[in-house]
Write a structure and sequence with these properties.
This protein is an alpha/beta fold and 459 residues long. The chain folds into 3 domains: 105 residues, Gyrase A, domain 2; 144 residues, tRNA modification GTPase MnmE domain 2 (Four Helix Bundle (Hemerythrin (Met), subunit A)); 160 residues, 3-Layer(aba) Sandwich (Rossmann fold). The chain has 16 helices and 13 strands. The strands form 2 sheets. It has a 7-stranded mixed sheet. Strands 9-10-8-11-12-13 form a 6-stranded mixed sheet, sandwiched between helices. The longest helix has 31 residues. The radius of gyration is 29 Å and the shape is flat. Bound molecules: guanosine-5'-triphosphate (GTP) and magnesium ion. The site of guanosine-5'-triphosphate has 23 residues, from helix 9. The site of magnesium ion (MG) has 5 residues, from helix 9.
C-alpha cells in the first residue's frame, strides 16, 4: 500500500467561485498546515473542521488567496487517510500556485483517480462503487445519474454478495466432502444443491444480465449517425434535435465537410448525435476526405438515421447508401415533407422497403417528436416510457456475470451427472472468482489500471 501523501486540484480548470486543492495521506496535515495564516498548532487542529484564513508562501510570506481550510483526519474520510481540502477561489493560476507549495513541501502529484483508488484499497468502498464515482461525475442524464448513484450506494455490491453467499456455502460443503470421502453421500445432496444453484444463483445472475441489456444505454449512451446524400437536410435535422443552431445549413450541396458531434437527451438516454458530410462520389479532395470520415462514423454507430429528400426522386446515390445501411439498426428519415406529397413518400417506400421510417420537415420542425420516439424504441426495443432497471451492471460487470453464469450452469450439470466433487468445486470457484472481480475481492493491476485511468486527476 502506498503511504505517501498525494495532492491535486480537484475542481475543473477554468474560472469558478471556488476551487479545491485536495491532499491525502499520512503527512497531509503537517504538509499543509504551515501554509495557513493565522498559524494553527498541529496538536490543536480539530478534525472535521473548517478554518478560515489565508494561504501564504512561507518563503516570501506573500498571501496567495483567502481560503477555507478543511481538516479531516483518518479514518472517516474519502480515502480513509488524513485529508486536507483547501477551498480557495476558482482561479486556475491561484490553485496551481497553492498546489505547487504543497508539492514543494513533500506531497506527490496524484495520478488520475488515485484518491478513489485509495478509498477502494483501504476498504471503504468496493470496486463497483469506485467505478460509480466516475459515472456520477460524467452522467449526462438524470436516469444515468440515478443508476450511478445507486451503484455508489452499494446496491450492485449487495446484489453480488447475495449471489456469492450460497456459492460459498456450497463450496465449503463440497470441500468437506472431498476431505471426508466416506461421508460424500451424506454431504452432497444433489437435489438440494441443484435447487439452491438454480434459485439463488442462476436466476439472479440471469436477471442482472437482462438488466444490463435493458438499461446499459442509459449509462453508456448510444451513438447515432445522420447519413444521406448532400443537401437532403442532415445538418438541419441535427439542429432540430439539438434545439440549437449548431451546424451550418446552406442550400449549397457539400456544406458539411467535417463531422459534428453533440450529445442530446432522448428520454433519459444520452445520445451522441453525429452529423456527417453528404455521401457521394466526388473529385473534390476536401469533400472526399469528409466522405471517408462519414464511412468511419457509420461503422461506430449504434443507430443510423438515413435521410432522403422527398421533394426530388431518389437517385443512385441514395440507393448506394441504402445498400450500406439496410442491414444495420436504421431509421429512414424522409425529409422535406413540406415540399413532397404522399405520392412521393409512397415511391420512396416502394424502393427502400423494410426500414422503419418517419416523415419529417427539418425546416419546419414537423415530425421531430415522432422521430425521437422512434429512436428511443430502436435503441431500447421498448415503446413508451421504459422502466429503467434499478441496478444496471456495466459492460465489465456483464462479462464477469456471464462467466459466473456459465460456471454455475456447469456446477448444476456436474451435480446432476454426479461428476467428482473436485470438478464441481473447480466450477464453483470459477463462479466465485468471476463475481469477485466485479466487487474487487479478486483483482489485478491491469483491471485497476483500466478502471482508474478513466478518472480525472483530483478524483
Ligand atoms: N423545404 C425544406 N427545406 C429544407 C428542409 N430541411 C432542410 N432544408 C433545406 O435544404 C438545404 C440543405 O440543408 P442542410 O441541412 O444543409 O443539408 P445537409 O444534408 O446537411 O447538406 P450537406 O451538408 O451539404 O450534405 C438548406 O437550404 C435547408 O434549409 C425541409 O424539411 N424542408
Ligand atoms: Mg450538412
Amino acid at each position: 500500500m502506498d503511504s505517501d501523501t498525494i495532492a491535486a486540484v480537484a475542481t475543473p480548470p477554468g474560472a469558478g467561485g471556488i476551487g479545491v486543492v485536495k491532499i491525502s495521506g499520512p503527512r497531509a496535515v503537517p504538509i499543509a498546515l504551515p501554509l495557513l495564516y493565522p498559524a494553527k498548532e498541529l496538536s490543536r487542529v480539530r478534525s472535521h473542521h473548517l478554518y478560515h484564513g489565508s494561504i501564504i508562501d512561507p518563503e516570501t510570506e506573500r498571501v496567495l488567496d483567502e481560503v477555507l481550510f478543511g481538516v479531516m483526519k483518518a479514518p472517516h474520510t474519502y480515502t480513509r487517510e488524513d485529508v486536507i481540502e483547501i477551498q480557495a477561489h476558482g482561479s486556475r493560476c491561484g490553485l496551481g500556485a497553492i498546489l505547487e507549495l504543497v508539492l514543494k513541501r513533500g506531497a506527490r502529484l496524484a495520478e488520475p483517480g488515485e484518491f478513489t483508488k485509495r478509498a477502494f484499497l483501504n476498504g471503504r468502498i468496493d470496486l463497483s462503487q469506485a467505478e460509480a464515482v466516475i459515472e456520477v461525475v460524467t452522467a449526462q442524464t438524470k436516469e444515468g445519474l440515478e443508476l450511478a448513484a445507486r451503484q455508489l450506494e452499494g446496491h450492485l455490491f449487495e446484489a453480488i454478495e447475495a449471489i456469492r453467499g450460497p456459492i460459498e456455502t456450497m463450496l465449503v460443503e463440497i470441500e468437506a466432502a472431498i476431505d471426508f470421502p466416506e461421508d460424500v453421500e451424506d454431504i452432497i445432496r444433489p437435489g438440494v444443491f441443484v435447487r439452491s444453484m438454480t434459485q439463488d444463483v442462476i436466476a439472479p445472475l440471469g436477471a442482472l444480465i437482462d438488466d444490463y441489456d435493458e438499461g446499459h444505454v442509459y449509462r453508456e449512451g448510444v451513438a447515432a449517425t445522420i447519413i444521406g446524400r448532400p443537401n437532403v437536410g442532415k445538418s438541419s435535422l441535427m439542429n432540430r434535435l439539438l434545439e440549437k443552431e449548431r451546424a451550418i445549413v446552406t442550400a449549397v450541396p457539400g456544406t458539411t465537410r467535417d463531422f459534428i458531434e453533440e450529445t442530446v437527451n432522448i428520454k433519459g438516454i444520452p445520445l451522441r448525435l453525429i452529423d456527417t458530410a453528404g455521401l457521394h462520389d466526388t473529385d473534390n479532395p476536401l469533400e472526399a476526405e469528409g466522405v471517408k470520415f462519414t464511412r468511419r462514423r457509420l461503422d461506430e454507430a449504434n443507430l443510423v438515421l438515413f435521410m432522403v429528400d422527398c421533394s426530388v426522386p431518389l437517385n443512385d446515390e441514395d440507393m448506394k447508401i441504402y445498400d450500406l445501411v439496410h442491414n444495420r439498426e436504421t431509421i429512414l428519415v424522409i425529409n422535406k415533407i413540406d415540399l413532397g406529397d404522399e405520392d412521393a413518400v409512397r415511391k420512396i417506400l416502394d424502393r427502400l422497403g423494410g426500414l422503419s421510417w418517419v416523415k419529417v420537415s427539418a425546416l419546419y420542425n414537423q415530425g421531430i417528436e415522432r422521430l425521437k420516439a422512434g429512436m428511443f424504441e430502436q435503441v431500447t426495443h421498448q415503446s413508451g416510457a421504459a422502466d429503467v432497471p434499478s441496478i444496471v451492471p456495466n459492460l465489465r460487470h456483464k462479462v464477469a456475470l456471464e462467466r459466473a453464469l456459465g460456471a454455475s450452469k456447469d456446477v448444476v450439470e456436474g451435480l446432476k451427472t454426479r461428476r467428482p466433487a473436485e470438478l464441481v468445486a473447480v466450477d464453483l470457484k470459477e463462479a466465485l472468482d468471476a463475481l469477485g472481480e466485479i466487487i474487487g475481492v479478486v483483482t489485478t493491476e491491469e483491471i485497476l489500471d483500466q478502471i482508474f485511468s478513466r478518472f480525472c486527476i483530483g478524483k
